[in-house]
């Protein structure tokens, strides 16, 4: 059974984490004392005096890892997310470590040891998790640590999830078949009988780890009996609602008088603390960006003014947070044009309105740099959905489902859609899909990821005309 297998895996992960933490300290000690990389001045504490606090911290680190869900049996978690959780856990760990040293008055404990230990422990633990993940993938492909699953009910959700399972064999799902009142034939999915046969099947097949309920809405009156059959035999039950397409990626459920209410559009940035953190990062980040990019902006300003007639800064009305309009700034990249023409004309390939300098600064996204001042003013954020002109907002709100959801957060200079290649003259639907993913899954970690992706692949825009 998967429960026993997973317990062994979790125990192995705890053990390897302990080994990684202690090995990290030994490596840190070598770097600090014996490698010669760091010059040691004066006397140092003994190996034992350095080791004891680390051994005290080991169970605390394990508790932090558990708190950050690093021992949960989440088969579909991305490696990048797991590494981010390791980094965050180690930050918490080193803060507590420093606190313990302060409270115990360990003033001679070299602070460089803490810094080196943090870096080494993060690297070692991440490598250990990568190795475990690779081993688990191989084991699952060879038939070990498999989650035996049964579908109950046939719907669009069944098709989509079954396709995902088949495309991702490393998740370790094995679908035994499906129960449905009318016999169905779908790919190689085995028909096991009608819904009334579920209880008998579970009683005879103790290797079933979970059932996934994918009933159509019309069959929801049978839910009670299905769940009762699962609970009677201790089988885990999960449900893909027939209306799953309308639910957010991370549904927020609140309870009122014992009745659960699902918020159809959970937005983390509605939280006042999250909002304050993001705004604080925007103010600090935009201030640093102004200093960092000021040489490029000065050179661009000179080139724009000396190579074509017209204003330096192109100002245009855009729609932002809560559908409020604001003036967005760009370096002018086109010849002067009639305001009405500008409002309704989409930039196209080989657009004759572009200047020579404008073509370059659009391709390299340098024309967007003045928007840093929009961020500082509070009209925009460093990261978020790209704002659009009023004419196109009115056009797309009737043509593109969920288009107006993007206005529930501040627009950004770059965003999840842009780093995934959906910028310029590309699919509006795909852009909105990415925007909604960002809005529903916002975190400081995701913002940092987008910044790095923008730096490494987002500046040069092959779709910029």
Question: Structural class of the helix and strand makeup?
Answer: alpha/beta
Helix content: 40-55%
Query: What is the H/E order?
Result: HHHHEHEEHEHEEEHEEHHHEHEHHH
How many helical stretches? Answer: 15
Write up what this structure looks like.
The chain has helices at 2-34, 47-67, 79-103, 111-141, 156-167, 198-204, 223-232, 272-307, 339-344, 356-363, 371-377, 390-399, 416-419, 428-440, 444-458, and strands at 147-152, 173-179, 191-193, 210-213, 236-239, 252-256, 259-263, 313-319, 325-331, 381-383, 412-414. It folds into three domains: 2-141, no CATH class; 147-246, 3-Layer(aba) Sandwich (Rossmann fold), CATH 3.40.50; 270-458, no CATH class. With 465 residues, it is an alpha/beta fold. Helix 8 runs antiparallel to helix 10 and helix 8 (272-307) runs antiparallel to helix 11 (371-377). Strand 4 (210-213), helix 7 (223-232) and strand 5 (236-239) form a beta-alpha-beta unit. The chain starts with a helix and ends in a 7-residue tail after the last helix. It is flat and about 80 Å long. It has 15 helices and eleven strands. The strands form four sheets. A five-stranded parallel β-sheet has the order 3-2-1-4-5, with helices on both faces. A two-stranded antiparallel sheet has the order 6-7.
């Amino acid at each position: 059974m998967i429960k026993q297998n997973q317990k062994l895996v979790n125990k192995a992960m705890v053990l390897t984490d302990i080994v990684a933490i202690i090995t990290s300290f030994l490596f840190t000690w070598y770097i600090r004392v014996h490698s010669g990389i760091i010059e040691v001045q004066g006397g140092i504490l003994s190996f034992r005096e350095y080791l004891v606090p680390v051994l005290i911290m080991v169970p605390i680190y394990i508790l932090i890892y558990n708190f950050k869900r690093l021992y949960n049996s989440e088969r579909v978690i991305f490696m990048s997310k797991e590494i981010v959780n390791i980094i965050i856990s180690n930050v918490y760990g080193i803060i507590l470590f420093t606190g313990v040293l302060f409270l115990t008055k360990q003033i001679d404990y070299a602070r460089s040891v803490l810094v080196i230990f943090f870096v080494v422990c993060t690297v070692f633990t991440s490598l250990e998790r990568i190795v475990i993940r690779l081993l688990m993938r191989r084991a699952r492909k060879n038939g070990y640590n498999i989650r035996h699953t049964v579908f109950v009910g046939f719907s669009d959700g069944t098709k989509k999830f079954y396709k995902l399972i088949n495309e991702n064999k490393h998740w370790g799902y094995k679908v035994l078949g499906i129960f449905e009142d009318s016999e169905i034939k779908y790919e190689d999915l085995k028909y096991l009988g009608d819904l009334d046969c579920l209880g008998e099947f579970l009683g005879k097949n103790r290797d079933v780890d979970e059932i996934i309920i994918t009933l159509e809405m019309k069959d929801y009156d049978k839910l009670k009996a299905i769940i009762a059959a699962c609970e009677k035999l201790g089988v885990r039950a999960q449900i893909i609602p027939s209306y799953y397409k309308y639910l957010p990626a991370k549904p927020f459920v609140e309870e009122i008088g014992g009745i659960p209410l699902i918020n159809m559009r959970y937005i983390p940035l509605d939280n006042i603390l999250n909002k304050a953190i993001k705004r604080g990062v925007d103010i600090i980040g935009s201030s640093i960006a102004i200093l960092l990019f000021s040489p490029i902006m000065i050179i661009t300003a000179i080139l724009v003014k000396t190579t074509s007639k017209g204003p330096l800064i192109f100002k245009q009305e855009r729609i932002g947070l809560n559908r409020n309009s604001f003036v967005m700034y760009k370096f002018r990249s086109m010849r002067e044009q009639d305001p009405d023409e500008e409002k309704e004309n989409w930039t196209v390939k080989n657009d004759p309105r572009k200047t020579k300098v404008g073509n370059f600064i659009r391709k390299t996204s340098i024309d967007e740099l003045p928007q840093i001042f929009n961020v500082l003013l509070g009209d925009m954020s460093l990261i978020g959905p790209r704002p659009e002109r009023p004419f196109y907002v009115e056009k797309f709100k009737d043509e593109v489902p969920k288009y107006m959801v993007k206005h529930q957060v501040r627009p950004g200079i770059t965003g999840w859609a842009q780093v995934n290649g959906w910028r310029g003259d590309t699919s509006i639907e795909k852009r909105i899909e990415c925007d909604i993913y960002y809005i529903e899954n916002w975190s400081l970690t995701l913002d940092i990821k987008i910044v790095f992706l923008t730096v490494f692949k987002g500046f040069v825009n092959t779709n910029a005309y």
